[in-house]
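Quick entry, no commentary yet.
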Amino acid sequence: MEMIIDFPEGARVDAHFGHFTVKTDQGPPVGDGTAPTPFALFLSSIGTCAGIYVLGFCRQRGISTDGVRIVQRMHSNKMTGMIGTMELEIQVPPDFPEKYHKALIRVANQCAVKKHLENPPKFDVHTQTVEKA
């Protein structure tokens, strides 16, 4: 997979892949706040990825997702200032079958984003000179 990252204006940085464009921005005073920051977008990918698995689980069993949601909380490490714990709380309504509670946790843990964080890739950051078209 390849993504093209460009800089349309101001503090915006956009990613293009396939037929999608993902827009990011910084908040004032650096940017205009027209889109999420790259870090907020990264964080949202964790919860939405887990959500895809929860949604698929419910659909396969004909269980309504009305009242089902995931609340994602980030807990900072006071020493590093970085996120030390990521909490995903799967909230279900009272009529959600109790027998599936643990299974929801198992499927949410299958999230590909989470798995990549647990086993991070190596990074190769470099420059390449290219001629303008």
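second:
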Amino acid sequence: MDCIQIVGLSGAFGLGMCFAVLGSIAVKMMPRMGIDQSKFGTMISAFMFACLIAQLVVGVMMDSLGYQLVAIVGFAAAAVAILMLANAKSFSAGVIACILLGVGAMACNTTGNVLGTQVVQKMFHGDGAAAAANNLVNVFFGLGLFLTPFVVSFLFQKVSYEKAVSALGGIILLPLIAVFLAVYPPTPAGFKLMDAVMLLKEPVTILAAFVLFCYIALESSFCNWLAPFGKEVLMKQNPGMAADKADASAARLLSAFAIAMMAGRLITSFSGITQFGGWLIAGAAVVAAVIILIMTGVKSSSAAYGLALAAGLVFAPAFPTTVGVTFTKFGGGSGSLFGIIFAIGLAGAVIVPKAIGNMAKGASVQKALKLLLPACVILAVLALSLHYVKGPADAKPAAAVVAPAK
């Protein structure tokens, strides 16, 4: 594997780590900082809001300054932020770390989903190449999402909180070696900021953005609240369970979700899914609604693990397929296009996980999950709309479309 491929895939892996870290350490971080579910929800919102702002800047920065600088910022900022979380003992210090984590996450995100999709797509030909390639890239997002709680749940039983979380910072810093050795493809020639602004006039841009608004609200809620949800179910089933054992077991619930997500994305990475991408996402949203409804009343920890696996499998293709379908409708992707749709999408993650935290404060995380049901319904409707809307590439005469190189 070339260094450039390592950089692209590591970007998706790093994003998975960034999205999993708060949920993975929540059960130990909250008592350490003396905060409740509502304040933890505020930390998630701070992280997601920082992601929203950073994504707009990073997308344009990639198109204007190149891939390498964005990759450096991603891995370095994420590592520093995680080390800050390892040592933070107050709510304010945690919020500052979350803001920096958002910057690192979005630089990793753009590296993975733009550069990664570009270099991996060479492995594919014909219809559905962008969607299939992005699904394969996002298998590595799932790997980061899986390994983070897995590593933490193991280390929490062996070393101190500070050392366990700091180890994550060291892991996410490793791809910098490949970043400095890689040879990068050229960035768009003659890029102007107005080029990015003009993307907003395309209906497909707006539809894709709101599809991601609903989907990211769902995924970020699962990433950050699965472990607390799992602990609630475990402690109700086994009131005498030791706290450390419950914390580790609850963290592994997120690993189960991530494993299923990796499997689902791997399955859809070798198929021409662009042709029916909208229907796939809409169907997944309906099934997700059923899973969430069952989760609000589940009483068995084994059933909770099964539901986490089912949710990961169902959620798997939604994000990369949306990105791939959107790129295809534009005849290719760019940092600016990805930045716009992902930034608007992140607003869902700013609002919904915080709402779950607010409701959980007076009830429970398990009951608060019902707030995700409207997002599933709206996602299904928007995904079908995205499927049928025409993009700039669809409007071109057939003779003007250049066939991919064999």
